Structure prediction request, 242 residues.
Amino acid sequence: MEKTVSDAIHYRRSVRLFKKTVELDEEMVKKCLEHAVLAPTSSNLQLWEFYHITNSTTLKSMVKACLGQNAAKTAQQMIVVVVRKDLWRKRAKANINHHKKSLGGKLKEQYSKREKFVFTYYQKVIPSIYVDFLGVFGWLKYIVFNIIGLFRPIYRQVRNSDMRIVAHKSAGLAAQNFMLGMAAIGYDTCPMEGSDTYRIKKILRLPFGAEINMVIGCGVREEQGVYGNRFRIPFEDVYKKI
Prediction:
């Protein structure tokens, strides 16, 4: 029986040792990835890819790239969350095509103000934010937008580094969806920051524009696989009611 959302949140821990004798159902893990892609994402661009590693040879290569961490050594399977900011044009076009299809052949002159805005957003606004050249355009946009911001509220995160953060935030939300989905069915995960991302890109044969968001080891926890009791800063120290 699947856990409730609250139960899954409390059950989820970063597990460093997985049982070698318990194999994961690949289709169940894939189902959790289907939940991952339902996560909220900036402008619905979905600038992510998920690599589900089950091949034993590839898993061994990944252990070395993950610096020999126990969560990698004992993982039955791995998920690599990849950010694809370089695909923004393709994903924007997919949104435009989806919008056209949802309008059911309606003529342009029949579009409502809101329907017209969607096309303007993906055809003009998104390119104005994502187009860059060696970071130069980003800084020019940043200066212009901040000058405008002296007179009215405006979006200011327009540099290449800002858009990378936006894409990684969305990927992180998807990763959390995946890990909670795994927890709900009694599977365990460990998101690993420590890795040689260059080696991982070579292993997965990723293009230059792809970036590794995180590697997630998957399995079923050993009793000693959770290192200590959960510690969190007291809630009253981080909760600010205004």
